[in-house]
Design brief:
Blueprint (H helix, E strand, L loop, with lengths): L7 E2 L17 E10 L2 E9 L5 E8 L7 E2 L19 E9 L4 E10 L2 E9 L6 E5 L5 E6 L8 E7 L8 E6 L6 E7 L12 E3 L4 E3 L2 E12 L2 E11 L7 E4 L10 H4 L7 E9 L4 E8 L3 E8 H9 L14
Length: about 325
Amino acid sequence: MDGTKLFRRYPANPILTAGDLPYRANTVMNPGAATVEGETVLLMRVEDRRGISHLTVARSANGVDGWRVEPEPSFRSAPDRHPEEVWGVEDPRLTWLPERAEWIMAYTAYSRRGPLVSLATTTDFRTFERIGPAMPPEDKDAALFPRRFGGRWAMLHRPSPLRGNANIWVSYSPDLRHWGELSLVLEARDGAWWDAGKVGLGPPPLETAEGWLVMYHGTHQTASGPIYRVGLALLDLDDPRLVHHRTDEWVMSPTEPYEVMGDVGRVVFPTGWIHDEATDELRVYYGAADTSIGLATARFADVLTYLRSCPSPHRRRHTDEP
């Protein structure tokens, strides 16, 4: 199976642009996705004409078209009470926590010291309650697992070290406020690989009978700047520090004009997905060139079949140094 043919772009992409907003903005991108009362909810990152981002809700009956966008921002930065948000809020990932009967949003707060991971909760995407910062800067591309491991919540995220590659890590918390026991999960490869140097989590992990399905972005640095492409991995169901399978080849790459040209060209950046169990369709919502939102779909069973055929990477020992 050719992994690059797994996901099919919606023919009318992009599905949302700044022109679909009822107020002035520069761009829309990188939405979190959820199903609420039978509708698809996208919590979109919107960059205003100052360059500061906020989050706005769009709703659709079928998750494809007919989007109804809220008349004003749904989640604004609040630097007077949360100084870590002084330069905006970005790139939400949404996870339903059955134990708490609420959605938890991991988002990037843009502070004077750089981006960091913050958390907030909601039940209706109209009101939100901030938990606050979970990681110091620089750290981003975070999402929670929907259930605990050994009594602790777990979150995937991507610290950016001063030296070396930027990789995906997991941290644990007893209460969603205090995070620790940092462990490396998925490493950026080296050299000429498409995901060399930097990888970051896409949508939140999806639980399957065979493990946690993870979609991630990887960058390849070229003379004209980076290219953002997309890969897949399957993590152990009971210990997400273990990677069972990982795609060698990318499964999505910027090829369409709206993905190649924009505020940041040559970018596909998935941040939300929804699995329709009745039809086995997996809908992936992604930012295109930091300018608009695209939709790609696949059969969920095909994604797992393809991933099972991919190599099992070297498993890092838990005793290895961070």
